[in-house]
Structure formats: structure tokens, C-alpha cells
């Protein structure tokens, strides 16, 4: 039972910490391969393209199922001309996947994520479809580190390996049989971000919910990157960086964040499972003061791109083992931010579009 719970929680991890002995040896380019039963680590990427196509790719490694250090790839592509996402997923035992010690190069089945800063390639392929993407990081990595700290028995490690990224490529739907695959479709002018994570305990023990938000469309010289974890006991761990010219200009941690509930009476059942879901926040608000600068304002979720419930992607026998558990759901949004930033270079009003992911448990 605990193995199956590890499988479920693995896809929802933001990057949680390794055992204390490994706290200073976490690598963003290679897996750590820990021995704890509930350990999980991985790489997540999110991109929104100019035609409205949204792509989420999660690559994770954990000790679940029949073998330790099993790798799983889940890619979900939702195009504006289809109401059903293209989901490409495969799992492999440790003997059937590989990585490079020196640089990022993960090979799992026919899938591969590889490259060195700032240029990467993300490739997915099985009978359901194929995605081939060139990714360019447009900002330096932002390592949030251990949450709440390396001395805690249960903690998280998270790193924005690409706080800002551009992507281009193509995709096509597969035959899932002996027939021909679909025609290639272009993926142009993608914007998004990528995160590396590591987890030393089950998700419900280290996080009740999280938010990942990064700017994808800004006319200003500076733009925000935000991260929030709601830990057990209603404790918050919050992070905000203002980036400019591809570099972190200023960052803040441990500030209070106000979550604003949606002002709706009857959620659209196409977007929410109202029988079990707790609704994600409609907006967040904060006011931060620091010695080198201050920032205050609001980030509002404006369009739900995808509600992703991993349990629905499991095989029937897998769903049987987790159907009675409290399971997480991912909500992916376009958001608008309106922040006032006062720094060494004077006052700036930061406005634009962001890509956001919110994870919450169903109950």
C-alpha cells in the first residue's frame, strides 16, 4: 500500500529534501538515488505557446512499485483545437533507464531530457504521440534550497533550474496501433519555466498545497518568480524573486501571503470535481519590506488551462490501491500580476502574464 501511495504522491512533488546526510550534495543535473521508501525526486517543465497550446512534462524517480529507483515520465499536451489532452507516459525499472553524472541527460524508454545551460532538448515518444522541443533558459537558475531548513526531519529541496525559458518545436499524435501517426504540428514561441525537486517524505507530511508562478509575458525590464508551500499546521514558506536581464535583482523569503478564495457559488463542473475538490485560491496578495527593496501587490488567476488528476491516468489495478486515499490534483493557470517594486534603481510597476501551477489535496 505504501508503495502505491509513493507512486501517487511522486507526481505531485515540488521538490522535497533528501535525508540530512545528503543535504549539501543535491545536484540539479543528476538524480541522487536515495534509499528511503517515500523518497522522490524529479524535473518538471511547463510551457505555454503562442497558439494557446499548453505542455506540462514531469520526469520523476522514486522507490515505488516492484523495484527501487523506478523512473516515470508523464507529458500532457493540451491544444486549443482539442478538448482532450495528449498524454504520453511510461515507467521503467532502474535497469532500463540511464543518466549522465556530468550533465543533464536523462533517458527513459524513448524519452530524453538533456543539455547544458542555457540550451536543452526535451523529447517524448510512444504510441500515443511525439513531442520534440528545443528549450533555451533566459535566466540564471534560482536555488531555493531546503524548506523549511536542512536540519528538519522532513523538508523540501527545490530549484528553479529555468525561472524563465523559451521553447519551440513540434508534436504529433500517435497511432496507438499499426496505423500511421498524425501530421506534425508546430509549437512556436513557447514561454515557461522548469523546476528540479527532491523529497525525503510523503507529500502530505511536508506540504498541504503549493504554488509555482513565473512570468511569461512582460513589457517591463523586471519580472517576478514566486513560490509558496503551505506546510502542515498552516505554516507558510514563501519565496519571491525579481529578475531583470536574466539575473536575480532582489529576492525575499519568509513573508506572509494572503490567499483569496474564488468568488463563485457554483463552480463549472468541467473545471472542478465539486464533490471532492477544495477550490484553489483565486488570487494571492502580499506586502514585503526589505533592506534593499520592497514589493507589494497581487497575482490573480485569470484562466484555467488544465485540471490534472493523475489517478485518472493510472491503470485499473493501480487505481484500486489508491481510491480511498486523499490524493492531490494539479491546477494550471494563466495569471495576471500587478506589483509595485521599489529597489535601488527606483520605483517600477511590474505588470504582465504569468504561468501558474497550484497543487491541492482533494479533501
Q: How is this structure best described in words?
A:
This protein is mainly beta and about 375 residues long. It is built from three helices and 21 strands. The strands form two sheets. Strands 1, 2, 3, 4, 5, 6, 7, 8, 9, 10, 11 and 12 form a twelve-stranded antiparallel sheet that branches. A hairpin with a 2-residue loop joins β8 (about 120-125) and β9 (about 130-135). The longest helix is centred in the first third of the chain and has 9 residues, at about 1-10. It is globular. It starts with a helix and ends with a strand.
Low-confidence stretches: 7-23
Element order: H for helix, E for strand: HEEEEEEEEEEEEHEEEEEEEHEE
General form: globular
What's the count of strands?
Answer: 21
Give the DSSP E fraction (strand runs of 2 or more residues).
Answer: over 45%
The main sheet comes to:
12 strands, antiparallel
Distance between the termini: 20 Å
Describe the structure in brief.
With 363 residues, the protein is mainly β.
Spell out the blueprint of helices and strands.
Blueprint (H helix, E strand, L loop, with lengths): L1 H9 L29 E9 L5 E11 L2 E12 L7 E7 L4 E2 L5 E5 L2 E6 L2 E8 L2 E9 L4 E6 L8 E18 L11 E15 L3 H4 L2 E10 L3 E10 L3 E10 L2 E7 L4 E3 L22 E7 L4 E15 L7 H7 L5 E16 L2 E16 L2
Antiparallel strand pairs: 1-2, 1-12, 2-3, 3-4, 5-6, 6-7, 7-8, 8-9, 9-11, 10-11, 11-12, 13-14, 13-21, 14-15, 15-16, 17-18, 18-19, 19-20, 20-21
Amino acid at each position: 500500500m505504501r508503495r502505491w501511495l509513493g507512486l501517487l504522491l511522486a507526481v505531485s512533488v515540488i521538490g522535497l529534501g533528501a535525508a540530512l546526510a545528503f543535504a549539501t550534495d543535491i545536484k540539479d543535473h543528476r538524480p541522487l538515488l536515495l534509499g528511503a521508501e517515500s523518497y522522490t525526486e524529479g524535473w518538471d517543465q511547463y510551457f505555454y505557446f503562442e497558439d494557446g497550446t499548453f505542455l506540462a512534462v514531469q520526469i520523476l524517480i522514486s522507490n515505488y512499485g516492484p523495484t527501487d529507483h523506478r523512473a516515470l515520465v508523464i507529458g500532457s499536451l493540451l491544444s486549443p483545437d482539442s478538448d482532450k489532452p495528449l498524454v504520453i507516459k511510461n515507467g521503467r525499472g532502474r535497469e532500463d533507464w540511464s543518466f549522465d553524472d556530468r550533465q543533464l541527460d536523462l533517458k527513459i524508454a524513448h524519452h530524453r531530457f538533456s543539455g547544458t545551460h542555457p540550451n536543452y532538448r526535451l523529447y517524448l515518444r510512444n504510441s500515443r504521440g511525439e513531442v520534440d522541443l528545443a528549450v533555451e533558459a533566459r535566466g540564471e537558475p534560482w536555488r531555493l534550497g531546503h524548506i523549511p531548513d536542512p536540519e528538519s526531519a522532513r523538508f523540501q529541496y527545490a530549484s528553479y533550474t529555468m525561472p524563465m525559458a523559451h521553447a519551440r518545436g513540434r508534436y504529433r499524435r500517435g497511432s496507438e496501433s499499426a496505423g500511421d501517426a498524425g501530421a506534425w504540428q508546430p509549437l512556436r514561441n513557447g514561454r515557461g519555466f522548469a523546476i528540479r525537486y527532491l523529497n525525503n517524505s510523503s507529500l502530505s507530511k511536508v506540504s498541504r498545497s503549493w504554488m509555482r508562478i513565473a512570468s511569461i509575458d512582460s513589457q517591463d525590464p523586471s519580472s517576478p518568480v514566486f513560490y509558496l508551500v503551505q506546510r502542515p499546521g498552516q505554516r507558510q514558506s514563501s519565496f519571491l524573486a525579481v529578475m531583470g536581464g536574466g539575473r536575480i535583482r532582489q529576492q525575499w523569503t519568509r513573508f506572509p501571503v494572503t490567499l483569496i478564495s474564488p468568488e463563485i457559488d457554483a463552480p463549472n463542473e468541467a473545471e472542478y470535481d465539486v464533490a471532492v475538490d477544495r477550490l484553489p485560491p483565486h488570487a494571492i496578495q502580499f506586502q514585503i519590506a526589505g533592506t534593499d527593496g520592497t514589493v507589494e501587490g497581487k497575482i490573480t488567476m485569470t484562466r484555467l488551462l488544465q485540471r490534472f488528476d493523475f489517478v485518472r491516468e493510472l491503470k485499473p489495478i493501480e487505481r484500486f490501491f489508491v481510491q480511498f486515499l486523499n490524493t492531490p490534483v494539479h491546477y494550471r493557470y494563466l495569471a495576471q500580476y500587478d506589483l509595485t517594486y521599489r529597489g535601488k534603481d527606483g520605483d517600477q510597476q511590474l505588470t504582465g502574464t504569468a504561468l501558474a501551477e497550484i497543487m491541492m489535496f482533494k479533501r
